[in-house]
Fold these 2 entries.
Entry 1:
Amino acid sequence: MTTKDKIIEVSIKLFNEKGCLNTSTRHIADELNMSVGNLYYHFKNKEEILTAIFLQYLEIVFKEVSSLDYSQDEIFLLKNFLLDNLEADIKYRFLHLELNLLVMTFPSFKKIMEEQLQNEIEMIKKLVHHQIKYGYIIEMQDEEIDLFVSNSWIIACNNLSFWNLLSNDLIDNAKKGALNMFYFIKPYLTKKSLENEQIKTILNVLKNDKEKR
C-alpha cells in the first residue's frame, strides 16, 4: 500500500469516527505517525483527501455499470451492484451522513462532485436504454427515464441517513437502504428480468445475508 493509499484509508476511518469536519490534517498525520508536512507532500489539504475518497467511492459503486458490454444482450448484474453499494455505504458512510455539510464547506469538492454526478447520470441513462432495448426494463419515455435516474440518486444518497435516524445498527441500516433501492427498481423490471436467477436471489441475500455472490 502506498503512502497516499494509507492516508486515504486512515482518513476514511477518522471521518467515519469523528466526522470529516471534525477531523484535521493534524489528526490524520498523527494517526499515521507522520508529520503534517509529509502529508501535504501527498495531498495539499483535507479537501484533496476528501475528493480522492469520493472518486474511489464512485469507482466501486459504478464497477458493474462500467463493466457491462453494451453491444450485447446482457442483463445488468443488479445483485452485485446492490451488494457493492451496501459494502461501499458502510465503508464510506460519512459521505452519506455529512454530504450536505461537505458540499457547503468545500467548494472544490462540490464542483468535482457536480461534474462527476452529471457523468454518472449519463452512464445510468445509457444503462437504462440498454436494458430497455434488450427487454430487461419496461419501455419508458425520455422524461420518465430522467425521473427514474434522478429518483434513484435521491434514494441512494439519502437512505442511509434516514435509517440512521431510527437505528444505530449500521449494517442493518445499509441493508434496508439496499432494499429501498431494489423495491424502487423492481416495478420497472420485466418478466424476463424477474425470472433471472440473480434477480430472484436478491431478497434472500439482502434479508438473510446467507448467500454468497
Note: The first helix runs from residue 3 to 18.
Entry 2:
Amino acid sequence: MPKHNPKEARDVKKRNNSRIAKKEGKALSKKLTPIYIIIGVIFIAIAIGITFDYAGRNVEEDLNYPGISFQTIDGSTIKLSSYQGKVVLLYFFYLNCPICKTSDPFLATIEDDYSSSQLYILTITIDPADSDGGLYNWRENLNANWNIVRDDISHSYSSPWNIAYTPTAIVIDQNGNTVNKIVGTDDFYSKVTATIDALL
C-alpha cells in the first residue's frame, strides 16, 4: 500500500485549484467581454454626439455657451449678435505662431478689401501669455483696425469652435451660422474671400 505523502497531496490540490481558477477566469472573461464592448460603444456614441453638437452650433448658441465672454484687450465687450447682418470673420492665432506670419498680412488685406458694413473681423489669440503691448504692436505693424481678444486658460473663446491649430479662420454668415472653417495657410486668402464673396 503506497504511503501518504502530505507534500505531494498539497501540490496536487494546488494544481487542481489553479486549473479551476483558470477555467473560472476564462468563463468570467467571456461574460464580461460583451459588457466591455457595450461600454466602449456608449463612449464612442457620446464622443460623436458631442462633436456633432459643437459642429452644429450657430453663433447665438456659442455666445450663450457657459463661460464665453468676448472681452477685448481694450476692455470693451464684444457680442457677435450685435453684428447680425454682416459677415463675421474670427481669426485664431498667437504671436509666436510661426506660420501665422504667412496669413497675418492676408488678413490685413481682407480687412481693406471689404467695407465695415460688409465684414467684421475679430482676432483671438489663443495664448493667454500674449501681452497687450505685443498684441498692439502686431496690429499696428499690419496697419489693421480689428479688435483683439485674448483667450483665457480655459479656452473659453476657442473651444466652442474646436480650435486645435493656428491659424484658423471661422466665417459666420449674416444670420449667425458658421459656414466655413479654414485651417492653416494654404490658399488662405482665396479660401476666405471666396467664402465671404459667396455670402455678399
Note: Helices lie at 6-55, 59-63, 100-113, 132-141, 188-199.
